[in-house]
Amino acid sequence: MENIHLLTSKRLRPLLTFLLAVPVACSMAGCSLYFDHRYRGENFVLYSDHQPDFIARTGTEVEQIFSGYTRLFKTPGDEIGDTTIVLQGEPPDEAVVDLSYSPQLLGYYLPIFNLISVDTTAPWTREPETLRQILLHEVAHHFIITDYPEASDRCWLNEGLAGNLEMTLFDGENFEYPLINPPLLRIARRTISNLQYEFSLREFVDTSWTEFHQDGKKEIHYALAWSVINFLLIEHLDTSLPLGHRIKQLYHLSSERIGALEPEWRRHLDAFDLTKTLIELAYKGSPNLTSIWAIQQLGSNDGLDRPTVLTALESGFASPDNARRQSSYLSFLRTLGRSFRTSYPSVEESRLIQKGVSRVQEILEESAISDQFRETLMTEITHSVTDQWLWIPTLVDLLESTKSNLRAMAAHGLAQTHIKPTVLNPRFWRETSAKDRSGEVQEWKNWLNQHRPVFSSFTPAN
Amino acid sequence: MHRLLRLIRCPRSFSLTILTWVLAASLSSCGAIPRYEMTRSPLHKDSVLLTVFLDDKAETEVYRGIAGREVRKLLVDWDAHLFPLYEVRCEFLSKQSPQIKFASIIARIDTIFDELRMGSVDLSNVTRQWKIYIY
Predict the structure, then answer these.
(1) Among all residues of chain A, which has the CA nearest to that of B110?
(2) Out of A56, A78, A134, A423, which residue is the most buried by the measure of CB atoms under 10 Å away?
(3) B96 and B118 inside one domain
């Protein structure tokens, strides 16, 4: 995820331009010859060997990203240009998942050729959320450099701003900018709290491309750049101004002025309470894309204050907004899975967990709740391998559900526990008669009765 | 053939042996399934775990070849009175490095039989889904 700045470095520019111009120009001219599929957008052409439906889906998203950034940066139409976007990687064999390949560089942007390349060889890079984040980052570089060409020489600003904008949420024309990047926040805080890490903000903002991308420090520099830009955008500059205005103000802040803000930035970073910020975004104000994103973040980040998160999510169970309510249940289940993995829950957490689990159990057995949502909850429960023992009584009950999918999912969840051999085939649970299934169900009931005393001693409430 | 044997100028029986070896070696290298050790253990009433130990990582086709062969054997051996076989998980472990005490997983193939078949198995009419994970 970087902008290849060497190409615009003044001393190396002529030589590197010449060396790269020939092969890149040739390959760009013949992209349609090399790649099987292409998607033509208003301001870009997307090339790839992947399946046409994947290209069409990605192309539509890139179209929306261009449209959103054009409004954010107020870029005149004739300056946007025509970007070439290449999604590298062979078309996947659907039956083979190659987890051995991990790209060193997820994507890059070559301003001089207006070319974005994304490595989509690894299956996880083609996951919609990951690919969207990479594209938001790389297309942000294109708009930043089009808006402010000097950003090529200010690596921290270019990468820091792209690190903030990669968190953009959108649905059609609706764009929201939470700017919070939890993984980068974690790295930045860890780095700054390490007393042995020598750091000067004044020197950092003058770092060259090579220094910024130095092996072993690249990840830290990306995180620090994100945190400095985030501090400037949400704390230092006037937040009553639209984000686009504040971005333009960033361009004119001198290195000396930013350097002088180091104590204030350090205090801000040190005091940043991610748990509180996410809870506010999640449940205050009208529901929007950011509130749902924040609820999901509460369920997917380590290092948050768990009792506070569980309390907030359980209050979300009663939200009048359907999306907020359902996201709260799912995040509760995710928090639960992670809680048991990282450390044993405290007494207070155990009480909250038991309360939440009881509510989820009621939902699963409540026929008024939509089948689709109950199945989504079951998927979450059966994916978690750390807290399955909590759900065994519920899963055994659900083996007799009138809903065939719930029966099959319950059996799958029980099978994951490996506490007793069972029948795995979902068609057995979906399609055979109650009489055919009764033997298996009875075995589980017997097992539960035999183990109930031992089992109940493990419940978090005790 | 007679001319070929004369060309290599050695007794006919000896030449035939050599030719057979060469032919067998070249044919076997086409499929190239290496020697392997394997254990078989039940996972559930209708699923089985096969653990295959290999010296080193191999091509996807090799994993597929081994899993295919072992799944066919398993289908033949499967007790028709039990629940129909639903899933075979075949894990490939590498025992290459003597420094590593535990063999590490290098690939996994999950084979799912979609049909809910009871009774005897007609191997020619079994549909299956494969998923191969390379680590």
Answers:
(1) A95
(2) A423
(3) yes
B74 and B126 both lie in a single domain: yes
d(CA A282, CA A271): 20
Q: Is the pLDDT of residue B46 over 80?
A: yes
Residue ranges making up the domain that contains B88: 37-134
Interhelix angle A371-383/A322-342, rounded to 10 degrees, is: 10
Claim to verify: residue B13 and residue B43 sit in the same structural domain: no
Q: Higher confidence at residue A52 or residue B19?
A: A52
Q: Where would I find the beta strands (DSSP E) of A54-155?
A: 83-88, 96-98, 107-110, 115-119
Rounded to the nearest angstrom, the gap between the alpha carbon of residue A86 and the centroid of all alpha carbons in its chain is 22
Half-sphere exposure of A414 (CA within 13 A, CB side): 31
Whether B6 and B52 share a structural domain = no
Q: What is the mean predicted confidence (pLDDT) over B77-81? A: 80
Task: Give the CATH number of the domain where residue B72 resides.
Answer: 3.30.70
**A421 vs B44, B86, B134: nearest CB:** B44
Yes or no, beta carbons of B46 and A425 under 8 Å apart: yes
User: Which ipTM was obtained for this model?
Assistant: 0.78
pLDDT digits (tens, 9 = 90+) for A230-273: 999 999 999 999 999 999 999 999 999 999 999 999 999 999 99
**Domains and their CATH numbers in chain A:** 2-149 (3.30.2010.30), 182-271 (no CATH)
- Model confidence at A6: pLDDT above 60: no
A96, A404, A418, A428: which to substitute to probe chain B, counting the most B Cβ within 10 Å?
A96
Residues B81 and B23 in one domain: no
Q: Is B49 in the same domain as B11? A: no
Query: What percentage of chain A reaches a pLDDT higher than 90?
Result: 77
Query: Between A and B, how many CB-CB pairs are < 8 A?
Result: 51
Q: Does A421 touch chain B (CB under 8 A)?
A: yes
3-state secondary structure chain B: CHHHHHHCCCCHHHHHHHHHHHHHHHHHHHHCCCCCEEEEEEEECCEEEEEEEECCCCCHHHHHHHHHHHHHHHHHHCCCCCCCCCEEEEEEEECCCCCCCCCEEEEEEEEEECCCCCCCCCHHHCCEEEEEEEC
Chain B CB within 8 Å of residue A95 CB: yes
Q: Which residue in chain B has the smallest CA separation from A423?
A: B45
Q: How confident is the model at residue A462 (pLDDT cuts 50, 70, 90)?
A: very low
Query: What confidence score (pLDDT) does residue A235 get?
Result: 97
Nearest to A421 among B42, B60, B86 (CB): B42
Residues B91 and B42 in one domain: yes
Both B104 and B46 in one domain: the answer is yes
Indicate the DSSP class of residue A112: G
Selected residue with higher pLDDT from A461 and A336:
A336
User: Are A428 and B60 within 8 A, CB to CB?
Assistant: no
CA distance A96 to chain B (A): 5
Q: How many domains does chain B have?
A: 2
pLDDT digit string (tens) for A67-92?
999 999 999 989 999 999 999 998 87
Provide the pLDDT confidence category of residue A27 given band limits of 50, 70 and 90: low
